[in-house]
Amino acid sequence: MIKSIILTLCVILITFCFSWFIFAVKPLENLDKNNINAEILWKIINTEDNYRKYSFWPDHKGMQPGRAPHGPYHKIYINDIIRNVIPISNKTIPEGGIIVKESFDIDKEFVSISVMAKVKDCNPSNNDWFWAQYSTDGKAQTSGKIMNCINCHKAFKKNDFVMFHRLDK
Ligand code: HEC
Predict the structure, then answer these.
(1) Which mutation among 112, 153, 164 tests ligand 1's pocket best, with the greatest number of atoms within 8 A of CB?
(2) 157: Cβ below 6 Å to ligand 1?
(3) For ligand 1, is residue 67 a contact (CB within 6 Å)?
(4) Whose CA is nearest to atom 20 of ligand 1?
(5) Per residue in 87-124, pLDDT tens?
(6) What residue ranges define each of the domains in the chain, with the CATH number in brackets?
């Protein structure tokens, strides 16, 4: 009797250890330069993850006033890959880092979602960011190496194209 209880406990423990291992090391398998696209990125931030459970920058939490072209208010979320390494002394966000920005109009109505995802080798001359913009229901308005996004964010190239929040602080 005692033997079988111990055995059951062992099986539960081993299963638990394995499932923990699988979930803990699960990489963002689709965040790869060979298959990244707007739909896959949307799936990653909404199905694999729930970006609304991501963190905010420590000094930029919740809804904040924003600037053109993104609208008067925003919320900026950062995934754990970024959260776990800030402050970043070399100001380079690691592969797999994702920043999601929700934009709101003057009445604080949710209007669009802009995303920057670090995808190794997807655009080496501009720090390997994959850019995407969606309507609130997930329809991609633009995505990829978008020069419009890059040219404006380039002003902050030394901060890895990130406008809000100094990465080394
Ligand atoms: C004319 C300049 C300009 C253009 C074009 C632009 N952005 Fe931005 N972006 C900003 C500014 C300014 C911020 C800071 C937040 C704010 O004021 O809304 C920002 C913030 C962001 C953020 C939050 C991370 C950060 O840098 O602080 C994301 C994500 C983002 N933009 C994505 C995009 C995408 C995707 C595009 C192209 C579809 C784009 N941006 C085009 C100016 C621009």
Answers:
(1) 153
(2) no
(3) yes
(4) 163
(5) 999 999 999 999 999 999 999 999 999 999 999 999 99
(6) 29-159 (3.50.70.20)
- Report pLDDT for 135: 98
CA 1, CA 102: separation in Å to the nearest integer?
57
Tell me how far the alpha carbon of residue 51 lies from the centroid of ligand 1, in angstroms. 17
Per-residue H/E/C for 81-128:
HHHCCCCCCCCCCCCCCEEEEEEECCCCCEEEEEEEEECCCCCHHHCC
Q: What residue's CA is closest to ligand 1, atom 19?
A: 163
CA distance 100 to 117: 9
> Whole-model pTM?
0.87
Cα 56 to ligand 1 centroid, rounded to whole Å:
16
Q: What is the tens place of the pLDDT at every residue in 55-72? A: 999 999 999 999 889 999
pLDDT at residue 31 in the model: 86
Q: Which position has the higher pLDDT, 82 or 15?
A: 82
For residues 102 and 100, what is the distance between their CA atoms, to the nearest angstrom?
7
